Amino acid sequence: MNKEHHIIIDEVVKLLRGGNAHIGLKDALEKLPADARGDKPAKLPYSIWQLVEHIRIAQWDMVQFCADQNHESPNWPDDYWPKETAPKDDAAWHDSLKQIDSDLEEFIELFKKEDIYKPLGHGSGQSILREALQIADHNAYHTSEIIVIRRLQGNWPL
Predict the structure, then answer these.
(1) CATH assignment at residue 148
(2) Which InterPro entries match (predicted)?
(3) Residues 90-104, buried b or exposed e (16+ Cβ, 10 A)?
């Protein structure tokens, strides 16, 4: 690998972990009161729990798409959004966050070892670089929604 290739990989990994121009998911959820997880402010379609679960499901799907040529994605949009506005308990909340972290690390390891430009053999032209940028973009978008909800709840900034 040449120097430029390493620079791209390093920068994309930074972006996946939270970027340089925006706050990451972990920081957006820091000190979130447990009772705020399921609160859905007026005129907004989702709670923080629903956004976190959506991030988990969508990211998992993208990781599995890259890792497993036989992966079948959930049905869009129904299977990507939880119906419940709040987690059933603290364990469900922590399990979701743990899976987001572990799936992201799995993807980063895959990203570092693959030809990032080569189309995936089982896709329709997608490369692992495209999927990395999509994960980063998707997670950043929904992380910003979490921050907006926290602002409306009155528990932001920290």
Answers:
(1) 1.20.120.450
(2) DinB-like (IPR024775), DinB/YfiT-like (IPR034660)
(3) eebbeebbebbeebb
Q: What is the pTM of this model?
A: 0.96
Range of the domain at 134: 3-153
Ordered DSSP codes for 87-109: -SSHHHHHHHHHHHHHHHHHHHH
Number of domains the chain contains? 1
pLDDT tens, 12-48? 999 999 877 888 999 999 999 999 999 999 999 999 9
* Residue 96: inside a domain: yes
| Positive or negative: CA dihedral 25, 28, 29, 35 | negative
Of 99, 107, 102, residue with least CA distance to 67: 107
Which residues are registered as beta bridge partners of 127? 119
